[in-house]
Amino acid sequence: MNKLLSSIFLSLLACTIFAQQQPTEDDGIGLSQEVMQKLLDGVNFRDQQHTARVTRCRGTYLRTEIRDTSSEYALQAEIKIVGDDRQPAFVLKKIEHKTLTEVRIYEALLRIFTPGKDDDHGTYDYERLDGETWEGESNQRVITQDAGPLADTDVMVNGILLKTDANGIIHDTENQLNILDKFDDLGIRLFDFTIDVPGFDPINIPLTRTMPQRRQSDEMRIEEDEKFEILLAYGLDFALSKKKPEQDALQCKATLPKDFAFATAGEAFPLTITVTNSGETQTSCLVARSFSRIDGLDGKLFYFGAIQPGETKSFTRILRVDENEKSNAAALEIRFSDSWSLPKQRIPLRLTLIH
Amino acid sequence: MRLLLSILLLLCMVCARAQEAVKNSSFQDIMNDFTALQERHTANQVTLTKLGSDLRDLPKAATPADFLKGALKLQKRIIDATADVQRENDNQVLFKNDLTLYSGNHKLLKQEQTYLSLYLDNLQKYGREQENAKRQLQQALQSINASIAKVPPPAEFTCSQGIVFVLYSPKGYITQTPLTKEQYRSIRHACSPELSEEELDRDQEHFVKEGLTLSEAKIVAASLGHLCGFNCALPNEEQLKSLGNYALTIKQALWLDNSTNKTSKDREALQRFGMTMARIWDPRACLAKTAGKDAVHNELPWMNYPELGLALVVDASAGKNAMLAEIELEIAEEMEETANDTMAADPAPQPEESQATDNTIQEEN
Q1: Are residues A324 and B290, on separate chains, in Cβ contact within 8 Å?
Q2: CB-based contact, A52 to chain B, within 8 Å
Q3: Is the ipTM of this complex over 0.90?
Q4: At a CB cut-off of 8 Å and minimum separation 6, what does A205 contact?
Q5: A5 falls within a domain
Q6: Residue closest to B80 by CA, chosen among B153, B2, B9, B14
Q7: What is the pTM (predicted TM-score) of this model?
């Protein structure tokens, strides 16, 4: 029995010594053959009780290596004014979230501890281990970058099926979304749009129309975002002016398309209102509104805001005479309002209507 | 006015009489004057009695038209009787002054004194009777007026321009149809007689082919009202509730009176943009297939369509006044005929002496 135990002990010891002698690739703890040879050749061991300790350690930083890359795509929307008629439209672009798994690479060094008086005191020597590196901490880094427009894709906007063009603009040639119509009620300043695209999370767009009303303060609410503000998208200034505008100096006109001869019941057509400020003070929060018996022509707001002296601004709305209209004439009147009072200008329009 | 004239007349007569009295007035004249006065007073009393009797018989009229005719006649007679009583009252005052002057200017014989006392006593009595009669006549007039007021307006009437108005509710009338081109022409011609036939033709054509704007419609309403002597207007939204059956007969949309903007949206539009929209009623969907609530829509006041016409409303009193005016005309014609017949016949016999009668005019049941 004693002999057996002794054998087992000696075997274990031998294995340990043998394992220590094999070079390893992890933790830098194992010694390579070359190192072993150096030890055997050059190291002057005093005696077995004061053995030099050699360990592998980290040196200076060399580089960062990317070990893994993964990408996720999301959509980003914004509102833009597009087309000859300068109507608001949503623009979709893809955003790539690239996740990089990185590892910092250091030099690998050999640290040799030569004991002095005792094992706890001595000197350290370092040797670079050429050809070997030390892998340090790893981390993940996300890079977000523009991945280009969401081109030629079917999308659903508030349940309406539309398509983007090559630039990611959602085309709404039939004016089904009626974006501007949503804000024709002066009391509404926010309207939510939801865009659903297959393969992506739905995008919620809280579109706003912030127009100072008659009260003094007009603070932005927490859910409002300037990038979804329609009047800003149009580049309009609706800050209240402290100086009274010269309302009589405004020249206003209405313009229809050049080839427009008559309105057709059920078909859309653009109406542009143009205002020129011939005065010496800017206008203040200037808006216009259409009045008509016909629903498709009534209550449309035209936004101008501040028009500088000598400047001209235009705003276009897409109108449509209801299919149910029976008469042969369609009429509307444009009236103006600003933050000071009621400008006297008015534009009556009478259109021939065909069915 | 009548009172003022009476006072003026009285003053003149007093002056004249005073002058006359100062001249050569005899007691015989006094006696003659009293006799005439007495006779007139008696005649008035007879008239009053007859009036009372006729007032009691009025409710027995066969038809409402007969009742109304009788009431109007009675009304006139009461007014005339009241004037007569007042006139006699004034005469008596003058006579009394004459007596006073006479007795002041002459030395009276005993017999003359007796007569004067008797005359004065009678004058007092006549005065009391006249006051009583006036009171009763006033009550009778109020009663007659109340009876006339209770008579319901006729189902329809025709104004002086030949436009028929039909009763849509106890409160008012509406033109039987939206204004026709002939009616429109008639109104235009009546208001502007200087217009030539060609101009009227053009106007009429414009009315037919293009219709009227709100302001033109209001002018037509005011013109008709001016011509016919009553207030004429466009219907308002309140009146539409009573015009349900009328909607079935019309083939046009109609302008409405736009004195109020109903919805809060309209009010905000008015406040912020200074825009007042007009209102139209289109129950037959002449302008649009979809109808709003009660088929009322906003419309631009300067807009006109051939499908948009106008109907005019008047108060119920207009129809009643027209009916009364017609009856009064009949009465006047009858009276004229009667007067002509009377003049052609033999002279009437002398009135009989008056009797002391109870001249109480009883109220109608």
Answers
A1: yes
A2: no
A3: no
A4: A77, A79, A90, A192, A193, A194, A195, A228
A5: no
A6: B2
A7: 0.71
